[in-house]
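Tokens as discussed.
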């Protein structure tokens, strides 16, 4: 894992500061990063280089192309995609930032109603599993 993380950091600098891996699936790993311009938190999905082949790269490119055309509150937006240092990646919106904001508000003593009053835009995340788990834990 650290080899991919190191290669990703080296390949995407100075545009992104890669912080850490936040997830992994059947064909890819996802990393939390800070985009330098515009300055925002993003997630970077990278095809697992151990599994990477022509067919998987085609599938990944199709997924990025199709997903980037969709716009819905429950779909993570795709900002960009490319290949760097032999790694195929997509830069996505980072929903965990909203969940972290909620956790911080709860830590400061705000209840469920207070958090939703302070951050009404978080209501769009009701279908997002980490959001539901966090709200259930505060009942």
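Sequence:
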């Amino acid at each position: 894992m650290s080899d991919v993380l190191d290669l990703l950091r080296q390949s995407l600098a100075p545009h992104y500061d890669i912080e850490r891996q936040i997830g992994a699936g059947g064909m890819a790993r996802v990393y939390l990063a800070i985009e330098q311009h515009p300055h925002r938190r993003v997630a970077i999905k990278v095809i697992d280089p151990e599994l990477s082949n022509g067919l998987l790269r085609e599938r990944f490119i199709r997924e990025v192309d199709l997903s980037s055309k969709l716009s819905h509150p429950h779909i993570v937006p795709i900002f960009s995609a490319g290949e760097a240092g032999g790694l195929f990646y997509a830069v996505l919106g980072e929903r965990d930032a909203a969940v972290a904001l909620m956790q911080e508000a709860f830590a400061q003593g705000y209840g469920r109603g207070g958090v939703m009053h302070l951050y009404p835009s978080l209501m769009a995340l009701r279908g997002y599993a980490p959001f539901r788990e966090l709200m259930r834990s505060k009942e």
